[in-house]
Design brief:
By secondary structure, the protein is α+β, with helices and mostly antiparallel strands. Helices cover 41% and strands 20% of the residues. The protein contains 13 helices and 17 strands. Strands 1-10-11-12-15-9-8-4 form an eight-stranded mixed sheet. Strands 7-13-14 form a three-stranded mixed sheet. A hairpin with a 6-residue loop joins strand 13 and strand 14. Helix 3 runs antiparallel to helix 4 and helix 7 packs across helix 12. It is elongated. The two termini are 52 Å apart. The structure holds one RNA strand.
RNA sequence: GGAGAGAUGGCCGAGCGGUUGAAGGCGCACGCUUGGAAAGCGUGUAUAGGGGAAACUCUAUCGAGGGUUCGAAUCCCUCUCUCUCCGCCA
């Protein structure tokens, strides 16, 4: 959500900037709706002022025993007009709010202009993809062969785009979660939170999933509960409608949650394996900062996510998303892509974004330093990391000729073993 | 699931259908006082939107949404949340 007066005052410049991300702002619609809305407001508010003044008058006169029924009749009629005008004003207000809420964030000046994901710019690489002396397998072959990943039974008990992990596979998922949380809390200074996995509409509105992206979410029938699509939603909304002490920022939180996505419209994409699932596990990093801190903190947050991959010895690269590929609420996003030898490609494993005040404005998250006036905080988040995709990366990168997976050193205490071996039969 | 109580400003807390945007207190800010501090005294202290160059002014907001009324924090209805007791349960 943009600041209304800033938006109104810089319409042309904003429209031009939004065009770089492929969003066409209808200036005429905005201007006329805004004018209509203000006219309606002025009219109804004028009448209300009249009614308020009259009511006070009537009160005084009645105390003196004066008959006021004529004046009351007059105010009653004004009241009826107010009801009508209020309705009209509320409709205009709602249309205007929806229009404003559907406008994406402005990309930061450092974001490269581009038309599609092909225009994303690589920032750096880390690690060398391993040279195999055998043909590395994709996890969708290796997992079922090792009997640590079971997609058929997952389809039976839930459906497509779900997974069942067995034995060492389940243990690997759990080890990764604990490893990530421990590194972020002990080494990177984040505070762990465990939020609800169901959230209400207000929270989804606060982080920008609603009203535009309802079709990407799962909703529980007959309730206002939605399955959380990312911990970003519950964790960012922790401080909804609160004012944070500016001297104590940044606040750095990390959270493990499962994430649920309908994946409507992604039919046919990544249908093999567990790259794209209706449910996946994720450890999320969330920061609340002052405006002057947020870009430094974005670099640090992205570095914290990359550190997990370094500790696991998984090669990766960082790209900055171009204007067209940057998400709706984000001003700047880095994607971290991990090397997957089974697919001979780098694949997204983390997405780290600075939303500036875009979410905070919707969610009412303010900050105040000393005597200063309260202003909107900046919010950031990033995957630290997507656990399922890290599982894939570990299995594919560290697979051995004998059909086992040699665990990265850092993970062994969590795994309680130095390698993951085939399960034999499912039991 | 059943029965009851409650929700008012940053916090505590008053509130008769009529200058109550809201007493009083605490906190906070500024000033006076002081060698300095404490105490004391004084002044100020919400958010959003509209109008205005500004001073300022209008509108809305007492959990949320409706209703009654000339007028609602106060009356009525619905919902949400919190607390207490009973039942059930990991």
């Amino acid at each position: 959500m943009h600041d209304l007066s800033f938006f109104r005052g810089n319409l042309e410049a904003i429209a031009a900037r939004l065009a770089t991300r492929g969003f066409e702002l209808n200036l005429e619609e905005f201007r006329s709706l805004d004018a209509e809305r203000r006219a309606a407001l002025a009219e109804t508010e004028g009448l209300k002022a009249l009614r308020n003044a009259e009511s006070v008058e009537i009160g005084k006169l009645r105390k003196q025993g004066v008959d006021t029924s004529a004046r009351q009749q007059k105010v009653r009629e004004a009241g009826e007009r107010i009801t009508l005008l209020d309705q009209k004003a509320a409709e205009l207000e709602e249309r205007f709010r929806l229009l404003l809420a559907s406008v994406p964030n402005l990309p930061h000046e450092s974001v490269p202009a581009g038309r599609s994901e092909r225009d994303n710019v690589e920032i750096h690489r880390w690690g060398e993809p391993r040279q195999f002396d055998f043909e590395p397998k994709a996890h969708w072959d290796l997992g079922p062969e090792m009997k640590i990943l079971d997609l058929e039974r997952a389809a039976k008990i839930a459906g497509a785009r779900f997974a069942v992990y067995w034995g060492g596979g389940a243990r690997l998922e759990r080890a990764l979660i604990n490893f990530m949380l421990d590194v972020h809390t002990r080494e990177h200074g984040y505070t762990e939170v465990l939020p609800p996995f169901l959230v209400n509409s207000a929270s989804l509105y606060g982080t920008g999933q609603l009203p535009k992206f309802a079709q990407d979410l799962f909703k529980l029938e007959g309730t206002d509960f939605w399955l959380t699509p990312t911990a970003e939603v519950p964790v960012t909304n922790l401080f909804r409608d609160e004012t944070l002490d500016g001297d104590r920022l940044p606040i750095k939180l990390c959270a493990y949650t499962p994430c649920f996505r309908s994946e409507a419209g992604s039919y046919g994409r990544d249908v093999r394996g567990i790259i794209r699932q209706h449910q996946f596990q994720k450890v999320e990093l969330v920061k609340f900062t002052r405006a002057d801190q947020s870009y430094d903190e974005l670099e640090k947050l992205t570095g914290d996510a990359e550190d997990i991959l370094k500790r696991l010895g998984l090669p990766f690269r960082r790209v900055v998303l171009c204007t067209a590929d940057t998400g709706f609420s984000s001003a700047k996003t880095y994607d971290i892509e991990v090397w997957l030898p089974g697919q001979n490609a780098y694949r997204e494993i983390s997405s780290c974004s600075n939303f500036e005040a875009f979410q905070a404005r919707r969610a009412g998250i303010r900050t105040k330093s000393g005597k200063g006036k309260a202003e909107f905080a900046h919010t950031l988040n990033g995957s630290g990391l997507a656990v399922g995709r890290t599982w894939v990366a570990v299995v594919e990168n560290f697979q051995q000729a004998d059909g086992s997976v040699l665990a990265p050193e850092a993970l062994r205490p969590y795994l309680g073993a130095e390698r993951i071996t085939p399960q034999g039969e499912y039991r």
